[in-house]
Sequence to fold (108 residues):
Amino acid sequence: MKSEINKQLGKRIQYLRKQKGLSQENLAEALNIATTSLSYIETGRGFMSLSTLENLAKALEVEPYEIFQQVTINSNEEMYNYLIKKLEIIKTDSQKLKLIYDLFKIVL
Fold:
């Protein structure tokens, strides 16, 4: 079962892997795990052992804590859908809606 934390962590690992120009196969080989295991980790369907975490940090040339740093990596579609959902929630809150409206007028 995918938890939100696993999904976000997986996205972060995928982002760091791509920043290093590594394929899943290359990184899995460096970690001495199956490519499918790495795929499970990156999609949030699995988690890694502490030894895999240590090896991952070494392979990606980062400190282990950096793997857990949240960096939002969203597509335009994801960001748009997020904004639409939040606007739907605040549509009856005049104060919040006015604030967002004013912000949009400044930015756009």
Summary: The helical segments are 4-19, 24-31, 35-42, 50-60, 64-67, 76-90, 94-107.
